[in-house]
User: Fold this.
Amino acid sequence: MEGRNNRTLFDGVKDLRKLIKEKELLLVIGEGESALPRAATIDQWWGHVDADNPQLTREKISDLENRYIRDNAPEARQSRFHGAIRMLGKVPIIFTTNIDELLEHFLWKSGTDGDKITLEQVARLPEVNNLDRQVIVKLFGDKSYSMFVTDESRKQFELLHQEENRLTAKLTNIFNSRNVLFLGCDTKHSLYKNFIQRFVTPSSKEHFCFLKSNKNEIEQEGQLTTLMADMELWEFVLHLKSGDVIREISEITPGEIREISFLPTQRENYLTQQLLLEKTATEIHFHTTKVTNALTTLELLEKESKPSLERIFRNDPFGESQEKQIEAAMDAMKGRRRNLLNVIELGKTPVVATFLYQAVVEELEHQPDKDKRCMALRKYAEVILQSKSVLKTKNSLELVIVDAEIGTEAYKRLKDDTFAYIKLKGGVNEAICYADTATTSSKKVTTHLIVINGEEVAKRRNTYDTSVSVGWDSDNSLLRLLTLVIKCDNVEHVLEDAVREKLLSLHDVQILSSSDEYDTKSMKLLGKGSFGEVYKVTDREGKVFALKMLKELQGEQQDIIEAFKKEAKSLDTFADRSN
Assistant:
C-alpha cells in the first residue's frame, strides 16, 4: 500500500479487493444501512429505546425490522446491501452500532451460522486467525441473552476511548492486525470520531471508510482512507467483490452452492466463467426477451456491445477506461460466440432459446432507428440458419417462441426474468447466469451473477419450463420467425441474395414438413427414391396419396432442394393433367 498520496479511487478499491480475497478485512456497519428510515442518524436509535421497558424497546425494533423487510424486498425478502455483503464471503468479524438484527437475519441461514456477542465479550475473543465462525459484535448490546440496548451500554461505548483495560487492549490488537472498512457510519459524529481517534488513527494498519457524496474523490487522514463516490452503499460493496473465476470445473463440489457476482467492468471474467460452464454442459437453455445476444452477429458486437462497454467504463468512478480491458471483454464475447456456434454445429449438446414473439416484432418492425432494424434483421437471419431445421437436422439449436400478449402476467414474467440455465456434466450441478438490475432514485445498476445450485437455480428452471410449456413447438417457432424475417426484408431489402435464397428455400420446405394435413399414423413406407422415401398416406379427409419426403441433408445443399422442388412441381402438373 505504498504511495497512498497519489492513489485514485480505483487504487483504493483494488486494495480493498485484495484484502477481501486474503480474508484480511473486517467491517464496521452503522446506521446508514439499518432498519431505521432513511436518512438514518445514530442518535435516532435512542428514540426507540425505553430504558424502563426493555420489552417495549424490542417490540419497537421488531416493528422496524418487519417494515424494512417488507418495503425493501417484497420478493427476495432481503436488502441489496445485505445481499452485497453476503457476496464478500465470511468476513471474520463485523462490528455494528445497529440494534436491529438485520445482519443476523440476512447473513445467517440460522442462528447457528455464527456468533453474536456484546462489546465487553470482545476481550475474550481468540485471535482472528483462530476464529472458526463469523462473529457479529453488537456494540450497543447489553449483557442479557437478547442483547437489549440500554443507556448503560451506550455510555460504555461513549467512554471507551478514555479507558485502558483488557477490552481496549484487545480492540487495539484487532485494529493493528486487521484492516477495517467503515460502512454507513457518520464519521463526523462524536461516537465514531472518538472511536476512530482511539483505535484507527494510531493503528499500524490502514483502514477505510466509504461515504456517499456528490463528488468522486479519495481522502487520507492518518491511517483512515475515505473513498467518496456518487453511489449507494450496496453499489460500493458490489465493487469490492472481484468475481474470482472458477478455472476448472473440478473445483465445483457436486451439489455445492456457489454465488459469484461480476460488475459490468468485469465482463471478461463473467464471460470466461460462462464459457467454462458451457463447455462442460449437457444442456444449455436461454430464457430471453429476444434471441440471445450470445448468438448475435459480429456486426452487433462491434456496433452495440463495444460502445456499451465503453460507456460503462467511462461512467464508473472505480474503473479505468482502458482500451485493453474493453478489447479483452470483446474477445471474450467473440470467443463465447464461437464456442456456442461450434457446440450447435456438432449437435451433441442441446441448446434451446425461448423468447417473446412480441419483442421480436418490436425489434424488427417498430424500432424507429433504421440501422438498428437492419442489424436485428441480419441477426435473426443468421440465427435461423444456425438453428435445427429440415436443412440442418444435426444442429442442436432449437428456437421456442412464447406468444404472450403485452401487459399480461406471462409477458411480464418472461420480460423481467432473462437468464441462461446450464446443466453440467454428471447430472449433479446446475448453473444460472443472469443480470441483476437494481434501480435507485437516480439510476439503474446492473451486476452479472452466476449461481451454481441452490434456490435461485430451481426458481429460474421452473420459469424456463413454464415458458417452454406455453410456447410454440420448435418447428412452428422457426416457421413463424422465418415468415416474419422474410416479410421484414421485403420492406428493408438488407439481406444478401444468398442468405435470402436460403431463407426462402427453408421457408418452403419448413411449410411442407410442418404441415398437419396428413395423418402421420397412417404412413406406410412404399420405397426409396433419389431424394428420399415415399410413403402411402391418408389425409384428414380420407384420401390416399403417395408422399415423398426429402431425405436428411448435410448442410444447405441448395441444388438438391431446387431439384426436389422441380420434381414436386412436375408431379403436381402430371396430377392436374390426369384429373
Notes: Residues 51 and 151 are 7 Å apart (CA to CA). The domain at 4-240 is CATH 3.40.50.1220 (Rossmann fold). The chain has a mean pLDDT of 83.
